[in-house]
Automatic annotation (TrEMBL):
Residues 1-162 form the AIG1-type G domain. This is GTPase IMAP family member 7-like. Keywords: Coiled coil, GTP-binding, Nucleotide-binding. Pfam families: AIG1. It comes from the Eukaryota. GO terms for molecular function: GTP binding. Transmembrane segments: none annotated. Residues 155-200 form a coiled coil. PANTHER family: GTPASE IMAP FAMILY MEMBER 7, GTPASE, IMAP FAMILY MEMBER-RELATED. The gene is LOC105896103. It comes from Clupea harengus. InterPro entries: G_AIG1, GIMA/IAN/Toc, P-loop_NTPase.
Length: 260
């Protein structure tokens, strides 16, 4: 189902209005389209729904259930949980065991039930003739409605939840942008430091190269053997220093390229 559908009827002497919505994991609709359809469900049940049935199919992945509850709270606000009941479908998978046996082993299901103040109901899809499943659900809904003093989830609550969600996303975006700016500032500082070190290394390399050239020229004109030997050692040291600076420049240049 790609759109919301509103149906009315009499069940066990009660007039019931049900607005069926697309599934949260409906592959036909995009995320924004699903949000729009869920917004319509509040309008279609004006003045507002007395109950939300959070349908959870037993056997679905825990991650999907966790995401579904999170999505519901984010889009309808925490107040909506006052009007929510978890409806487990696929009860035949339990093979006669109570769902309470499953909850201790499934944190995702347990959390969903706990968030809805331990309100839940199980439907066995293979026993459609059993009307007690429906009447039992209606009794739980009625008990919740009485507990909530017959109030309902209003469109104003929904709009407030949407406003808060927009503000939260705006804050998250601002925090993200600030973090990016701070990281870029740190990178720029690192780049400036490395560039400064490269310039310094190039300067000293150039100085050493000049000294080496001057020394080589002088060495050619020295007659004393001892002095010439000492100058030769100094020139050898300058060669080493120049090579060392070249290595430093290469290393720093690589670091600089990684920061771009």
């Amino acid at each position: 189902m790609a759109t919301c559908e509103r149906k009315t009827g009499m069940v066990s002497g009660r007039s019931v209005i049900v607005v069926d919505t697309p599934g949260l994991f409906d592959r036909i609709l995009a995320a924004d389209a699903i949000k729009r359809e869920f917004g319509k469900c509040v309008e279609m049940s004006m003045p507002g729904p007395h109950a939300f049935l959070l349908v959870i199919k037993l056997g679905r992945s825990p991650e999907e259930e966790k995401n579904a509850l999170k999505w519901f709270q984010e889009n309808f606000g925490p107040q909506a949980l006052r009007y929510a009941i978890v409806l487990f479908t696929g009860g035949d998978r339990l093979k006669g065991r109570p769902v309470e046996d499953l909850l201790p082993r499934r944190a995702d299901l347990r959390d969903s039930v706990h968030s809805c103040q331990n309100r839940y109901h199980v439907i066995n899809n293979k026993e459609k003739i059993d009307r007690t499943q429906v009447t039992g659900l209606l009794e739980k809904i009625e008990a919740m409605v009485i507990h909530n003093r017959r109030t309902y989830y209003t469109n104003a609550m929904y709009q407030e939840a949407r406003r808060r969600m927009r503000e939260e996303r705006k804050m998250q975006r601002q925090k993200y942008e600030m973090r990016i700016r701070q990281e870029e500032k740190k990178k720029e500082q690192k780049r400036a430091t490395i560039q400064k070190e490269i310039k310094s290394a190039e300067k000293w390399k150039k100085c050493c190269s000049v000294l080496k050239d001057v020394g080589a020229f002088v060495e050619g004109g020295v007659e004393e053997e001892v002095c010439a030997a000492g100058l030769g050692n100094a020139l050898g040291l300058l060669d080493y220093v120049v090579d060392d600076y070249e290595d430093d420049i290469k290393t720093l240049t690589k670091k600089l390229s990684k920061l771009k």
